[in-house]
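Good morning,

Both structures are done.
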Amino acid sequence: MTTISTDSSLYEYLGLAKTDTESNDGNTLAMEDFMELMVTELTHQDPFKPMENSELASQISQFATVSGIEELNNSFTGLSDDLLSGQTLQAASLVGHQVLAPINSGYLEDGGSVEGVIGLYNDATDVTVQIYDSSGALVREIELGTKDKGEVAFTWDGLTDDGTYAGAGTYTISATSTQNGESVVPYTLIKATVSSVTLGSSGSDMALNLNGLGTISFSDVAEIL
């Protein structure tokens, strides 16, 4: 009758040699533990109904697959943690900085101004920026005249059309233009200050909290200034 050896030659034969450096936490079934259980099963099997070679190979393959999936999950967990750490550092560096955001409102601080960019798809005439207060009333109209295709910077100094200074607060900003003989509404990018950052869960986006203007997704930011 063939005897089954439990020494290291069996592990080496199967390509699963034991190493003294491997260890586990006592709660995890390692490959060498599995092999010891397998050897015990083979030793005490019914000699009249021995385990088929294909069955033995199948059990080893199944265990190796489960072990591989667990290692892959651990790798993804580590990658996710690394990404979250990088996201945290990036968030910390953004607080206090200004960004250009695709929003239609600007926050005017006491004695401050509102800056932004309007985008023209073609050369344009009669380029104008309108500023509205919270009630929807037009408080200032800035005429920029004729501009070439591209992005055009503008600044509202906080003065109304009658020359008085507008109060601090949030103002709606829009623009109009004439391009190729037709009235076209350009897109607007408003400069805003990042007051805080909300981190999403692993793999999700950050949200930037803009001073006086609410929250936008980090992926929507056009430029970090």
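Second structure follows.
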Amino acid sequence: MLRNLAYIETETGGDLDRALARAERARQKMPDSVDIADTVGTIYLKKRMAEPAIATFTWVLEKDVDNSTFRSHLADALDLRSNLTGSEQELRALLRGRKTETGTQRIRELLR
């Protein structure tokens, strides 16, 4: 429930500090949940905190290596850090995985 509240608050322009506190409490209760960790990483990303977002999304991908959403989030965090080599690598990995036509177009635009 805490993760859901944090996610809703994050996506509706709510208080990111409160959302992060909720998501981190949820993660303490379920430390192996990739979905909760992804929410924590997304909040770090929205707060423009590249390093903790990268660390979180890297952990998530170690647990679920084929998840294109998580890989996209890591690419966004690497881009935020201005690590073009890392973000390009993640975008190319996304192109190799499962994708939609809209997603493929966005990836190709980002690679340009």
